Amino acid sequence: MSEPTRVLIWNEYRHERERQEVRDIYPDGIHGQIAGGIASDDLDIRTATLDEPEQGLSEEVLDWADVVVWWAHLAHLEVEEEIVQRVHQRVLSGMGFVALHSTHDSKIFKRLLGTSCSLKWREANEAEILWNLQPSHPICRGIGERIELDHEEMYGERFDVPEPEELLFLSWFQGGEVFRSGCTWRRGHGRIVYFRPGHETHPTYYNESVLRVIGNAVRWAKRTMNLPTECTNPDPVRSIT
Amino acid sequence: MSEPTRVLIWNEYRHERERQEVRDIYPDGIHGQIAGGIASDDLDIRTATLDEPEQGLSEEVLDWADVVVWWAHLAHLEVEEEIVQRVHQRVLSGMGFVALHSTHDSKIFKRLLGTSCSLKWREANEAEILWNLQPSHPICRGIGERIELDHEEMYGERFDVPEPEELLFLSWFQGGEVFRSGCTWRRGHGRIVYFRPGHETHPTYYNESVLRVIGNAVRWAKRTMNLPTECTNPDPVRSIT
Amino acid sequence: MSEPTRVLIWNEYRHERERQEVRDIYPDGIHGQIAGGIASDDLDIRTATLDEPEQGLSEEVLDWADVVVWWAHLAHLEVEEEIVQRVHQRVLSGMGFVALHSTHDSKIFKRLLGTSCSLKWREANEAEILWNLQPSHPICRGIGERIELDHEEMYGERFDVPEPEELLFLSWFQGGEVFRSGCTWRRGHGRIVYFRPGHETHPTYYNESVLRVIGNAVRWAKRTMNLPTECTNPDPVRSIT
Amino acid sequence: MSEPTRVLIWNEYRHERERQEVRDIYPDGIHGQIAGGIASDDLDIRTATLDEPEQGLSEEVLDWADVVVWWAHLAHLEVEEEIVQRVHQRVLSGMGFVALHSTHDSKIFKRLLGTSCSLKWREANEAEILWNLQPSHPICRGIGERIELDHEEMYGERFDVPEPEELLFLSWFQGGEVFRSGCTWRRGHGRIVYFRPGHETHPTYYNESVLRVIGNAVRWAKRTMNLPTECTNPDPVRSIT
Questions:
Q1: Quick one: which of A51, B90, C10, D114 has the fewest CB in 10 Å?
Q2: What is the number of other CB atoms lying within 10 angstroms of the CB of residue A239?
Q3: Interface of D with C (CB under 8 A)
Q4: What percentage of residues in chain B have a pLDDT greater than 70?
Q5: Could you tell me the domains of chain D?
Q6: ipTM
């Protein structure tokens, strides 16, 4: 059997410690819930959080990881520039990156995509329907035609991201907005997935389809090689004279 | 008649002052040669250089510009982070950006694209042929099937950039390499063009076809609107209850 | 002043002649309403319909046209193969093609895109909101954040088209579906726009924003050159020996 | 262990029977050489040729196949329209399609892509270098920086295809041309690969790297699901009243 995929689930882990209503939903943190929810023999899963040494993202753990899942919201600005660059370099050399929900506004996501990644938002406990546009894509496997969530935060267009290379999910919101909720891009040798759902006040990461998309995404985005991205100065292949 | 397009040609302007062989080719600087070479009634052109106050890129001049043309090589690391952010924000709000030659390794280009933008290179005075892949694209208008340059620096693949949205030119080099020499991307509301030729030791910016591509590119990439990219929190369009 | 853009608006023109409720809305046909609605000094507009000689698409009129706007629904299968090929070749050589609403299922649209172009649909007079994703794109110019239509036919994903090169509008429907309602692709030297709204039983083509999008689209997609697409067998550029 | 991938290698098989110089290189036909060259435990390989019943492409064999590899040159026009439609439908429902060399001009390839797929060509036994642009892509795995072929037919740009979704290989030719030699697109639920090398008068399909790319491509493009592409008329998900 092939080696398991090494998955690092990184969570800001502030909401869960600071607000009882969030802790009630995610007593082990969002990272803990996702780690349990996608557990499988072919995945070797670790978790890390912002308030750990080196913000949970040492060179060692990043050398280990094939793919990082990221959830953050309140403390984007606390992530140190050096850590951002460290993760950025790993993605360019082939590590996968799965950005969940409010990670849209993180330094690392914006660094990878080059845009503001801004959007409209509203907390109104409204219904969301995610339509599966690419049922034959590995990330959408096992998901039916749609995922319905009774209560979620609304994210609305215009989502300021580069045109996705693959658009996998589109969301409908009760209040009238739409959103590109599942997107992929490549940067360097790394693969990036954005998946929208998961506001901290809703039990979204208990939804089986949401967990399946995340599990599919880590398998799709995982590192397959470790390639350099430096400039080189070679001799000609063919004689110039 | 409509307003002329406001073009800022920014040049590092170090090679020309430091090396006689470069000054012989570009006595007015690369910026001066390009400014003269693309001059036209529908363009209002200014130039700026790295060693001017605010590195030539004040808020005022950037508010003025519809599009910036950028040439740099030696001193990428001297461009201040604040200036990089200033230009980045302008591009996201709609200003065009035309990156020439060694600008591939500038902070601002890498910030916009999110990758290392690394490549292979060789200074061997070898022949380059640029093939025009999209003769009906506005940037390629008036260029025939190909542009031939007798002596240029070689740039070779793998060019570590996100997949171009439009691939306009492909280069052949005498020594055996190939390169994606004309590419476009969109970031935020801004349009980005990369155009490869123009090593400082060759008179490439006197070539009529090369000048025509740059002139076409500024017209294609110019700002058409000034749009914000901030997150907003709107009321529902449709009643949620 | 430059030459006006030559626009051919082609309509199946069956619903309007066969059903009173449609004729009441479009007494001059959908083609007549659009022609009047986008009239402008910079556009030279003609109309044509299926039941005219050569199905309204003679070599002469296609040689004349810079861009064709197409509306059809009932009679897709009546369009002759020769006519489909004639239009196809014109698009590949540079003529623009703007496909409206049920044109998604026409032979020519499927021929250009290579897919089934299938979708979900429902006639339930429900509300539609079209969100403008690219306000700085020429096709979206002058359209605000969104277009609201009180009653339209629903089109829902999965829309079986190649990933759009530019996704301009996303629709929200009252019944829970979403749709990629404004899309562009390039084929050969031609530019293709798909724009969703316009069911024959609704006065959609009287909406100022809908008309503006169509007017913008013909200007964006119009032919700029007439280029061949044949294989050629050239001598080497560089000596091979 | 998972089921082997079912690969159908389809060859026109005329050159090999009609010209001694081709038969000397490919005594078992190009299909036979590729079948042997990519043989592996995880692939279940069949071959078929144009002059067999139903042109080698019965409903049964297409129902069986997860992916088709296609080589053709002289007899594109002999492939019956019904067969083209049969293959087209299979690709849209999820079957992979790997187009080799002169298949660029086949009916099925042009039907899938929607363009003329024209190009420049020259038979001059010149050297070709294929540069690997995406070493971390599954199709490029195990291929180094480049593939060198001492003698091949030249194919040159402009290759009239829709912008590739992934550009994997770029070719350099001794005579001065370049070519997008490895490309992928998606159509419906199917994945399409174009790979350039393989003129019938050269022993290209004995090259280990060329065979490896073809083997990688069939594994990447293989069917993963069998999905319909028909229009459907569903009830609303959400109450409209």
A1: A51
A2: 8
A3: 92, 105, 111-116, 118-122, 124, 126, 154, 156, 160, 162-163, 165, 174-177, 185-188, 229-238, 240
A4: 100
A5: 5-114+182-221 (3.40.50.880)
A6: 0.96
